[in-house]
Structure formats: C-alpha cells, structure tokens
Specification:
The protein has helices at 13-18, 22-39, 46-71, 79-97, 100-123, 129-147, 159-166, 174-192, 194-204, 206-211, 216-242, 253-263, 275-294, 301-325, and strands at residues 152-153, 168-169, 172-173, 244-245. By secondary structure, the protein is mainly α. It has a single domain (45-325), classed as Orthogonal Bundle (ABC transporter involved in vitamin B12 uptake, BtuC), CATH 1.10.3470.
Amino acid sequence: MSETTHPSPGRSAGSQFLGSEQLVLALILAALCIAISIAAPQFYSEANIIAILRQCALVLIVASGMTMLIITAEVDLSVGASLAFVGCIGMAALNATHSLALGFLAALAFGGGVGLINGLVATKLKVNSLIGTIGMMMMLQGGVYLFTREAVQNHHHIAAFTDLGAGYVGPIPVPVIFAAVIFAVAYVTLRFTTLGRYIYAVGANEKAVRLSGMRSDRLKLFAFVVTGLCVGVAGMILASLMNAGQPTAGRGFELTVIAAVILGGTSLFGGRGSIVGTLLGVLLLKVIDNGIIILGWNQDLQMVVPGVVIIVASYLDIMRNRANAS
C-alpha cells in the first residue's frame, strides 16, 4: 500500500505523508468513520472512542516492533501466543512478589527472551523466520498450559496494576500513552537515526550491508528482541484489562498485527515500510472491528477482515515489486 522507503533527511514529515499512499489510507479511514457514524450515531460517543483507542493501543504497541522486524525481511508469528504467556508470567510474578515493577520486569524478560530465541533461530540456525516462529507459537501455546491449566487470577490489591489497563492520565487512557511513547520511539529510530537506516538497508540488500562491514544478523536480532519486548508491554496491559493472566488470550492477535503492518505499506520482502502507515493500518482495522459490533453484524467477521487484508495487501506488494523491477 505504500512506496515508503527510508525517508531522506531533507523531506518533512508532512511531505512524506502527503506524497505517499498513506494519504489514501487516511481518506479511507475518514470515509469509514463517517459512514459508520451515519448508520450508528453512538460511534462518536466518548465511551466508544475510548474503547477503540484502548484496542488500538495493544495492537500498535506490538505492531511498532513488528514494523521494524518486517522491514528487515523477517516476521514473527508467535506474538499472539507469547502475549498470552507473558500475561500469565507477569501475573504470577506479581502475585508472588506484590511488586508491579518485578511483575513488569518478568513480563519484559519473558517477551524479550522469546524474541531473542526467535532471532537466534533465524540468524544462527538459518531457519526461515516464518517456519521458526510458527514452531515457537506452537511451543508457547502448549507451554502456557504446562505453566498453568487455568487463568492466573489477581491475588493482590495493587491499584497501579489496575490503572495499567483501565487508568487515565487526564482524559487519556494509560494504554494509549504507552502506545504513543513506543510509537514515537519507533518513528524517531526509523526516520532519524543511523540504526534506522541500517534496518531499512538490511531488508533491502542484506549482502550489501554485510559487505559494508555491518553485522546484518545483529540488526535482525535487535528487531526480534524489540518485538518481543513490545509483546511484554502489551501482555501486561492486557492482563490488567482482564484482571488475570489468560492462557487463551492472544488467539489471532498475530494476524491483526501483521495485517495492520502490511496494510500500512510495509513490504514483506523487506527494505520498505512506514511506522505512520502502520498506525493508519491499526486504526483502520480497529474501526472496522468496532463498526461490526456497533452495527450488529456477525462478530466472526472480525477474524475474516485481517485475513482478507493480508491477502490483498500482499498481492499489491508483489505487483508493486514487479513494477519496480521492470
């Protein structure tokens, strides 16, 4: 959906946005919001807007890391299973220590550890990341039931933990603040730093990066670990929202994340993508989900939409790459 590569330093954020297909996504999003609000005026109610923002926050947190990863021409299909396991680990640590900081650190350590293992499998064992992370997904889905057969309930009374998912800073939900900070860090990293340029370069031409003296494996490993850490943050927020660590949480979450990233213009072939496009992709998918609920349609469509998006966006990406190669 987007022809965005690493932007040149001289281009402003506004010109980058207006000069790409991100504008098309923004127009589609605006038209969709108008259409749903006409059919269901409660769409613009404060409660509904907050609900959409909370849902977007969880996806955007992980999608920010996934955008970096897919730009390097790798992918992680284990993020949904990891999200569930992270919530159980974080809640168990919280119950044992009665410390939100230690619970959060346990969640980050587990999420980052999963990302590290995925990265090592892809870079050292040279296993295709699609296959390797499917294997990790299956291990996590089974492993979480070895860890706990049922939800890890909240056995403490820490107000800060509840605020993590349901709290506000002024009128802004706490999960939205987490998402905004992570999004901003990812945006600055990809757009303005040398690290960002190398991340784009390793996806566009890994051989050239190696010949220039950079360790492409380390860049990919970094992107895997960042994605895992983002899962750690999202998993703790989800556990707070559910007030429990649920082994079944996160089913299909990876599809939504990947669909949002691809819809936003990040190429599965690597070397091209935009974190702003990812934000628009997340908003578009979650507005569609919300519209399905408000309009009273069959909620199973919420799983159908990401699948359709992945197929269509991947096809358009293939066509664009063929056109660029000719």
